[in-house]
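Observation: inputs received (chain + flavin-adenine dinucleotide).
Thought: call the complex predictor directly.
Action: predict_structure
Action Input:
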Amino acid sequence: MVGGKKVVVVGGGVAGAQTAKFLEDFASVTLLDPKEYFEVPFSMLRNIVEPEFAERALILHTEYLNKARLVIASAKSATDTEVVTNEGEKLRYDFLVIATGSTYQGPSKRSERLQYFQSENKKLKNASTILIIGGGPVGVELAAEIVVDFPEKKVILVHAGERLLEFLGPKASSKTLSWLKSKNVEVILKEKIDITNLSDSSTTYTTKTGRSITADTHFVAVGRKVGSSWIVDSVFKSLLDSDGRLKVDESLRLEGKTNVFAIGDISNTKEIKQGSVALKHAKLVSENIKKLVKNPSSKLATYKPMATPMAMVSLGRSLAVGQLPFGTILGRLPGMIKSKDLFVGHMRKALGVAERKDSLSGKGHALSSYRVYVVFAVLVASVAIIHHYTL
Ligand SMILES: Cc1cc2nc3c(=O)[nH]c(=O)nc-3n(C[C@H](O)[C@H](O)[C@H](O)COP(=O)(O)OP(=O)(O)OC[C@H]3O[C@@H](n4cnc5c(N)ncnc54)[C@H](O)[C@@H]3O)c2cc1C
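Observation:
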């Protein structure tokens, strides 16, 4: 850790890990996270069908941080000068970066998280019929991973909404629905299953309208919560919006604050909440903190959300559905960008962590970021041409 101004980063996910990395040579950085590792969130479902994939996706914070101090605990509250952890430690700050995108319920040890994916894999392999509850990106990506790797298994997907992937446009939903149906996934829309009474031994499931579903096991793909419960006990409480996100100004500072920033999914910027966006926030805020340390009255860089939102949902190992500025595509091109490596190599590189030669999966190895950009450029050009000639 270097001397100088104290920066506390709360949350070691995509945004927080990258910010701590950017700033550790420049200030006295403390990263606060309830787990000892950074988990590439995009690979979560692949880790279930292929637990060895998680070896590269779970990166110890100490693998990429050289100087920053690491505190493995949760934030419990905060004042204008310090963050208080659930263990009672007080972390004083000159600058605070809040990056608690989603709550985390899992273990704090990497080895236990790897074990969790092994046991989820066992549960999956022992089942013939699998129920997935939730048709957002997590439920859809899991259904796709299962039908691609285990085509002999029957998958039933129950979703409360009128269409799958509601965070994307209707075209992405209908293309995804057709693809899942072509893989014999039974998709049940506008139905809810009460998840509060489910147990590992459940095999009969009843929807809110009384429909009965039989399956050997289930996976719950709903209920990712914004990580703002601790903020309710902090001086920033009044800055939470109705979705539990923090209100930020155009420099990603909390409204009315000069030294507190919110980045990634916890900020209320008007855009689809994504890892790619969280990385942009991390870069901008790190630069702004550097400027403020040098000169407190510096003009700060401002953030502009993308006018046309882009997003990709993987469908197994080689396909994806991509919502791009000029249209929605389901196929191999978006799949080449996302589905083979699920950006694990990209995140390792961003954090400066070398590849693990021992555990590179034969089924999905890293597509370098250079190749990602080349593929993306080809994709953009192809779609632009198709679009031009079909009008
Ligand atoms: C299956 C799946 C696929 C996805 N695919 C893509 C994709 O292809 N492209 C894309 O751009 N995005 C994708 N996303 C979205 C992306 O993962 C999120 O937008 C991104 O993780 C947000 O980053 P974040 O740092 O804001 O929050 P997170 O990554 O959720 O990190 C939050 C961190 O805060 C910590 N935390 C929570 N509460 C506390 C507390 N009280 N104290 C201390 N620490 C705390 C957590 O432990 C965690 O480390 C996907 C998400 C999922 C689930």
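Thought: report the result.
Final Answer: Confidence is low (pLDDT under 50) at residues 364-370, 384-391. Residues 10-16, 32-35, 41-42, 44-45, 74-75, 99-104, 137-138, 141, 227, 230, 264-266, 273-276, 278, 312, 338 surround flavin-adenine dinucleotide (CB under 6 Å).
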